Amino acid sequence: QVQLVESGGGLVQSGGSTRLSCSVSGVSSIVSSLDMGWYRQGPGNRRELVAGITADGATNYADAVKGRFTMSRDNAKKYVYLQMNNLQPEDTGAYYCNGRRIGVGWDFWGQGTQVTVSS
């Protein structure tokens, strides 16, 4: 129905930047109706929300990344992005793309992509 595939990430030096992409396959009307999010799971930590963007384009960010990360979406291309600047070692983790629509029970996850920030 809907599949999410993350790309980007890798090894980045502290203070560096990278951009994650998430390809969202599925019917366009469904994709554009999803609220999207980027989650991060660091070593030994729970998965936590890093950034979110609603179907209407409103964004929200975890306090730890405000001013450094920017999430965006391109419904025509069916992609969501996470631009990450001034990366720090504590940003290291597996980053997961999520799409959901509350009320209808839709909750889709990608397989994750690893970001490692070296000090």
Describe this structure as you would to a colleague:
With 119 residues, this protein is mainly beta. Helices cover 3% and strands 54% of the residues. The chain has 1 helix and 11 strands. The protein has one helix at 28-31; strands at residues 3-7, 10-13, 18-25, 35-41, 48-53, 59-61, 69-74, 79-84, 93-101, 106-109, 113-118. The strands form 2 sheets. Strands 2, 4, 5, 6, 9, 10 and 11 form a 7-stranded mixed sheet that branches. The chain has a 4-stranded antiparallel sheet with strand order 1-3-8-7, with no helix packed on it. Strand 7 (69-74) and strand 8 (79-84) form a beta hairpin. The radius of gyration is 14 Å and the shape is elongated. 29% of the residues are buried. The model has no long low-confidence stretch (mean pLDDT 96).
Outline of this structure?
The chain has 119 residues and is mainly β.
The biggest beta sheet is recorded as:
7 strands, mixed
Q: Whole-Å distance between the termini?
A: 40 Å
Share of residues in strands: over 45%
**What number is the mean pLDDT?**
96
| Rg from alpha-carbon coordinates | 14 Å
| Class of secondary structure makeup | mainly beta
Number of H- or I-type helical stretches = 1
Instruction: Return the string of H and E elements.
Output: EEEHEEEEEEEE
Helix content: under 10%
Question: Uncertain regions: pLDDT < 50 for 5+ in a row?
Answer: none
Number of strands: 11
Strand and helix map with partners:
Layout: E1 3-7, E2 10-13, E3 18-25, H1 28-31, E4 35-41, E5 48-53, E6 59-61, E7 69-74, E8 79-84, E9 93-101, E10 106-109, E11 113-118
Parallel strand pairs: 2-11
Antiparallel strand pairs: 1-3, 3-8, 4-5, 4-9, 5-6, 7-8, 9-10, 9-11
